[in-house]
Structure formats: C-alpha cells, structure tokens
Design a protein that fits this description.
10 helices; elongated; single chain; alpha/beta; 5-stranded mixed sheet; Alpha-Beta Plaits; about 20% strand
C-alpha cells in the first residue's frame, strides 16, 4: 500500500515508539528519535508531515523541543501532537498556546491515534496544496513571482554559505504589445504559454527554476552556475524562441517572436544583496532591448 505521509515519533522510551510504530507504520513512513536534539535535526532534514512528541523527556522536554521547532523557518509549520501520560488541563492549555495542534494520551488507543493523525495530515496536505496553487501562474503553469522570490532567497543563502556561483536570466518577449495588437490577446496568451514551455525546458536540473515574473517577463534561476555556462543556456533559449512558430487559433497563420535576455552570475559576498543581483540582470536586459533585441547581454 502506498504510504500517505511521513511521521516523526519522539519519545525517550522504546515501548512507546514501538507501540506507535505498530499502529501507524502500515499507512505512514515512520521516523523516530529518543532525544530532543536528534528530533530537531531529523525534522529539519526530512520535513515530516507531522511530529508526535512526548512531553516528559530528559535533557529537553517536549515544550523545549516545540520552542526550537517553532523558532526555525524550516520546521515552524510542521504540526506537532503532544503525547502524554498526564491528565492536566493546564498543561494542555499551555501546549495549545505554544502551537501544539492536538494531544494523544497514554496508553494509546489505536483508533484515536489513527483518527487524529489522519485528520491533521490531511489538513496539512490540503494547506500545502492550496499554498502551491497560490505560487503558480494560472496561465502558463510556471511558478509565479512569489515562488521565484522564495526560491531565490533560499539559493542565495546557500550560495553564500558554500561559496558557489548563482546565475539568473531575466527574459522579456520582444514587442509583445505589438504582437497582441496584431493577433489579439487570446493569441498573446498562446505565445506566453509557448514561451513558458521553452523556458521550463531549459530548467533541466531539480534546482533550476523557470518562473513568470509578470506580464511578458520571465526569469530562469540557475544555482551553482557560472557566467560561461549561464550564457550557453541563455543562447540556447534565445535560439529556441527565435525558431519557434505558434499557430493562430484559426490555424491559418504561423506567428513568431523573439526574446531579449539579461544574464548575471557571480559568487555572492556578504556585502552583496539580492536586490543588486536582480538589478544587474534587469540592467543587462535593458541593454539587450536597447541595442536591437533578440540578443543576450551580460554586462561586465
């Protein structure tokens, strides 16, 4: 049976972990930890769908682990269910105030455990699906500006940390307003969708990201890519766009368009900013547009 999600079990006593594993493992992938420190590390590395966390543990108790999870951007949104043998309303209220989504009491009832875990995992997956939709451009199916900015920030910080190059191509369809005027806005939408397919095809690695930034402007983020390799990709994209032919809706006319591309790539330093990085790409794009369009510019 296909597993429906991943659960992290955190308890310092093996019998509790084994009991929960027996109840949940037929339907879910199970991770486990006997200490708070290890649980925090596992949560950050694996991003489980839910965490079942014992309240009373040595060294770090459940509330301390919860505070660390909520303080990290990587794990703050993961729902946490406290597991406890205590029957204390004040403790439960305190847990809810600090971000716990539910409580499961010991000894475990398999019916209760399954029902509460299933409910919270389904709710989380629905939230994630809704959030993903909000980060997708509805016309082209590409990630939108919001998704692009989130990804850029993450990859920028990684490039800073490991001292690797990061490249960005800012792309704009040439004379798009004229194309719309000549063929109509529905045909303009067809051009945008065809262009998006070309850009998405250039994002070959899992870490690459093609996105629609707005209107006829697109971006292609290429982590761990130096300027030389970024320019090779940019030229392939430019040539593919120039060669593409898009039929009008009546199937009578083959239309064409070109793009201008501004490229930037460097290894970021602490004094550099994402704003300057994007600004340089925009400057190079403007240079391509001002010097004839249908070209790639990269500046200094």
């Amino acid at each position: 049976m296909e597993k429906r999600g991943t659960i992290l079990l955190v308890d310092d006593e093996w019998p509790n972990i084994l009991a929960l594993n027996e109840i949940l493992s037929p339907e879910y992938e199970i991770l486990y930890s006997k200490s708070g420190d290890a649980a925090i590390r596992l949560a950050g590395e694996n991003k489980p769908d839910i965490i079942l966390l014992d309240v009373l543990m040595p060294e770090m108790n459940g509330f301390e682990v919860l505070a660390e999870l909520k303080a990290s951007e990587e794990t703050a949104a993961i729902p946490v269910i406290f597991i406890t043998g205590l029957d204390d309303e004040h403790e439960e209220e305190n847990g809810f105030l600090h971000g716990v989504v539910d409580y499961i009491k010991k000894p475990f009832s398999s019916i209760v455990v399954k029902a509460r875990v299933s409910m919270h995992i389904q709710f989380r997956q629905q939230l994630l699906a809704t959030e993903e939709i909000s980060k997708t451009d509805p016309l082209t199916g590409l990630p939108n500006r919001r998704k692009f900015e989130e990804t850029l920030e993450r990859e920028w910080n990684r490039a800073l940390r490991v001292r690797s190059p990061i490249a960005f191509m800012m792309m704009d369809i040439d004379k798009f307003k004229t194309y719309n005027a000549d063929y109509g806005h529905p045909q303009g939408d067809e051009l945008l969708k065809a262009s998006a397919w070309i850009f998405a095809s250039a994002a070959r690695r899992p870490e690459d990201l093609a996105a629609r930034l707005g209107g006829e402007e697109f971006g292609l983020l290429l982590p761990n890519t130096n300027l030389e390799n970024a320019l090779i990709v940019a030229e392939k994209v430019r040539a593919a766009m120039q060669a593409a032919r898009i039929l009008t809706q009546d199937q009578k006319i083959m239309t064409a368009a070109t793009i201008s591309i501004g490229v930037v790539s460097f290894i970021p330093k602490l004094q550099d900013t994402i704003r300057d990085f994007i600004g340089q790409a925009a400057k190079n794009l403007h240079a391509a547009q001002e010097t004839g369009r249908n070209k790639v510019c990269w500046g200094d």
